[in-house]
Amino acid sequence: MKVINTLKKAVEELEKEKKFIFLIPEVRTNFVFAKKDFQDILDVAGVEGRITIVNKRPCASGKIKFGASDHLARLLLAIKKYAPEYLSAINFKFDQKILKAVKRVAKKRKLKIGVIDRRLEPKRIQKEEKMSIPWKVDYLYKKYKKIPQIFYETAGWGKEPLFVVLGKTPEEVFLIIKDILKNL
User: What integer is the mean pLDDT of 80-96?
Assistant: First the structure.
């Protein structure tokens, strides 16, 4: 229950940040936290139904539960190979204004921002279900020799460009998001 309660507290803090609605992408946001010894997506807690916008405020559309996220859970599993310290992640909208805010925060925190160029993704990977995430993680590691704590992907065919922030805990991720919001 510690994983669930820790993530729940961070999501509740995020819901208090009115400006977060400007970071919610069309695909909506998820926020996840994995058990220390996670092995599959059922060991990763997330927001059931994602975080959306209700009455001009960010709002978790469902409960925090294990197995609620597929995409970010699979991302953490792939990242574990190179950076097992990252147990939490959030995805959010990419645009040039947000990029400027992220760059200011990354500079202040001395973090490198990773970029995944989706145009370089092999066609065979694009066509096969659930193969993009391992390719993206391997691409980041090969390009940066580590997994950057903040990264984004460019638009791909039918894919919305998104940022991802990683952290050891949901609190760490939330504090980075809070910094980004202050810089918008």
Answer: 98
